[in-house]
Design a protein that fits this description.
Largest sheet: 8 strands, parallel
Pfam families: Hist_deacetyl
Strand content: 5-15%
Pathway: Ketone degradation; acetoin degradation
Number of helices: 12
Organism: Nocardioides marinquilinus
CATH architecture: 3-Layer(aba) Sandwich
CATH superfamily: Histone deacetylase domain
Distance between the termini: 45 Å
Keywords: Acetoin catabolism
Shape: globular
Number of strands: 8
Protein name: Acetoin utilization protein AcuC
Length: 416
């Protein structure tokens, strides 16, 4: 029997426990779990979240965002999206890393992107369970907003691991919402890489609108997500892709976001808004070529918060994603995200605590930024509204192509 539609009353929560950092591909891999630990430490020291476990005496009872524990997803829950042979292979590789290597590699395991590690199934299922907890709390009305910064593993496919992603926690969460009776779920992916796995799972389902803003696949993994990729038969217009040129900065990125995301969300009217916040769009990220600042990323988080309240009754599930400037970018970006989820945004001029910077120096040897933002506080990011299409710019041509490809399916005028 379907659960009743949520009443959408309750506090905001973050789903986290330190054991989630066991999702660890090993030394030297770009997706270090240290980025999650540093995020939660910074957020706790700024009283955005309540402290948990090994983080010690940081945070306080006055923290804005309550931290709740994460269950481990069952095999049956993971199997709502993933094939049994993948689950079995992940479990087998986690017990005997490197066994049957050829068969594992055909499923995306044991590659440079997805090295196998002991306990891999349990670690990946824990991330899925954390996202399911966030989805469940929002759908049942126990929380208005919920976040899982360890989630957002958007590349995993039903039949294989891909791009640092073993299981697709976001797709499992959206599938769960549909199974509870949700009829309209919107997913907005802000990672620098195309959200190909989530799109693949739902590309034939008009109940799910997926929107991905990313660096063009002509230049970056996974090589997909063109403007004319609009969804499968019967669901045309429900997969939306905005492939941006390398070098796009705050102004261009926010121009693209506002030209596509708000009008589609307003027309679609989702019951729940799900967002993925890979912060590898930042200029300092070592794996991609966009040029955003933390301030620009924060501007998008604020816009999505407001859109959740405008179009989805406030029901918002936010996840992490990519981000490989482990100490300098990810903790600041996601602390802003958590503060916005809590309903108490932080000023980018806020100083990062000296105790946190000292911890970063001790564990990484690096010097971390002294403020939560990158820009001069008197000059926040700005963008030009989509009032006139400029065919001489690659960014405008990409956005225009997306609007032409998708907007008519929703009864929207694609022209400025």
């Amino acid at each position: 029997m379907d659960e009743p539609a949520p009443t959408c009353e309750g506090p905001a929560v973050v789903v986290f426990e330190p054991s989630l950092t066991a999702y660890d591909f090993g030394p030297g891999h770009p997706m270090s779990p240290l980025r999650v630990d540093l995020t939660m430490r910074l957020a706790a020291e700024l009283d955005v979240v309540s402290a948990v476990g090994s983080m010690g005496d940081v945070g306080s009872v006055g923290s804005r965002l309550r931290t709740v524990p994460a269950p481990i997803a069952t095999d049956e829950q993971v199997a709502t999206v993933h094939e049994e042979r993948l689950i079995e292979a992940v479990r087998r590789q986690g017990r005997r890393p490197g066994s049957d290597a050829d068969a594992a590699e055909r499923l995306g395991l044991g590659t440079d992107d997805n090295p196998v590690f002991a306990g891999m199934h349990e670690a990946a299922a824990h991330v899925v369970g954390a996202s399911l907890e966030a989805f469940g709390r929002v759908w049942r009305g126990e929380a208005l907003h919920a976040a899982n910064v360890t989630g957002g593993l958007h590349h995993a496919m039903p039949e294989r691991a891909s791009g640092f992603c073993v299981y697709n926690d976001v797709a499992v969460g959206i599938r769960w919402l549909l199974d509870q009776g949700a009829q309209r779920v919107a997913y907005v992916d802000l990672d620098v890489h195309h959200g190909d796995g989530v799109e693949r799972v739902f590309r034939d389902d008009p109940r799910v609108l997926t929107i991905s803003l990313h660096e063009s696949g002509r230049y970056l993994f996974p090589g997909t997500g063109a403007s004319d990729d609009v969804g499968g038969p019967g669901a045309e217009g429900y997969a939306v892709n905005v492939p941006l040129p390398p070098g796009t900065g705050d102004g261009g990125w926010l121009r693209a976001f506002h030209a596509v995301v708000p009008p589609l969300l307003r027309e679609f009217g989702p019951e729940v808004l799900v967002t993925q916040h890979g912060c590898d769009t930042h200029a300092a990220d070592p794996l991609a070529d966009l040029e955003l600042s933390v301030d620009g990323q924060r501007a998008a988080y604020l816009a999505l918060h407001d859109l959740a309240h405008e179009v989805a009754g406030g029901r918002w599930v936010a996840t992490g994603g990519g981000g490989y400037a482990v100490a300098s970018v990810v903790p600041r970006a996601w602390t802003h995200l958590l503060a916005i989820v809590a309903g108490a945004p932080l000023d980018p001029a806020t100083a990062t605590p000296e105790s946190w910077r000292e911890h970063v120096r001790r564990v990484t040897g690096a010097t971390s930024p002294a403020r939560l933002g990158d820009l001069d506080p008197s000059r926040p990011p700005t963008w030009r509204p989509w009032e006139r299409f400029n065919p001489d710019t690659a960014l405008d041509r990409a956005v225009h192509a997306t609007r032409l490809a998708v907007f008519p399916y929703h009864g929207l005028d694609p022209l400025p």
